[in-house]
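User: Can you write out an input/output pair for a complex, sequences first and structure second?

Assistant: Here is one pair. Inputs:
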Amino acid sequence: MITLISSDKRKFHVLEEVANQSLTIRDVIEDRRGRRRADRIILVTNINSKIPEKVIVYWLRHFLMPEEIAHASMSHKKAEKLKKWEAKFFDTDIDTLNDLILAADSLDIPSLFDGACEKVSDILKNRSAEEVGEISKIENEFTHEEEEEEIPSENAWVWRNEFA
Amino acid sequence: MEEAIDWISSLPDEILTHILSFITTKEAVQTCILSKRWRNTWASVPVLKFEYDNSHLDGNTVEDLKFEQFVDGVLQNRRALLDTVIYDCDFNRSTWKPSMEWLHRVALLRPRVISVDITGADNFECPDSVFSCAILESLNGLSNTTCLVLHLDYSPELQLQWEKDIANCRTFKNLKSLKIISQDIIDDFDLIACFLWHSPALQHLTLMAEIEGDTDEEPRQEVCFQREYLENVTISCYKDDEFARKLVSMLGRYVKTIGNIIII
């Protein structure tokens, strides 16, 4: 059993095999192997307690079938179920997604990182050039000249190309 | 939504580019007008995903031209090496010439995976730079191709790479027809041998020698395998019959029985 401590000092006890899904934690445990029990405590100071909860939930869901996921040997039904579960898991507010991405990045949990990043990419998905332009008007620090001339001419090939 | 874009902007570069790798390249490129932060971000995204539904078109249309300009623009403005390139379009329509040029330019960016959809195509032309890309792990789609046309431009460094690459990561299990167009076919014979080895379904082999090869040079490679049968071999060269006979005898070292041999 290892203990994770979040920035707001909450403790989370997790089976080593489960926490091993974080490559960072796995390496730390490996480095400290054979030492005192106190060394099995890992501080995750850059994230608040809400995130370890979510990360552990994610770990537990994935822990049950790590081999199958890695080798894509899952049955169709199981894969569908996991997909549905993940869609629900990532259907959360932007702040949580942000924290999940940063946590997955620092703890090195590739599948969680990918999942959260893909969810965020939905914001930009299926938008035409005009729509992207609309969004940009809001927080736009380009000068008038840049907007009118430089950027359109530099990237003329982007806007000329409203293909199918 | 503004809030969301604003928030994404605050992420470090490598996370931002990772996020952009989930959307199509067209969508990613459009983010260049979001703000200064985004202006060149798209150029470092490790995945290129070109999506274009051209299956209903006959070719040479305005739409085609726009798409060509777009791909050219993307490839010209890339800032970083690539991980994955996906062409999700009817890639090798016979009227569509730029496809080979794109593959060549993409190969220079050293991707790990090149994925092309050539399901509808009856043949596929592939520049040699694709095979000489040392880092390439997977040519999705290509390993399913039934007909392959290779243009080989002579280069000694590339030559060394070919055999290793093809042997390491590619089995052309559906390849039925292979056409090799080469400046110096004797010199490229190791590659041909490799294909004979890794394409169990191969039936038709066409060798085209574009200029005269050096008939005096002896093949260097040890023969370590021999396939039972190859149905058709077509040899086309400017040289005399003796050169063609020499090619046949070289093929004979790798193939026990050849059904038909046509020399043009």
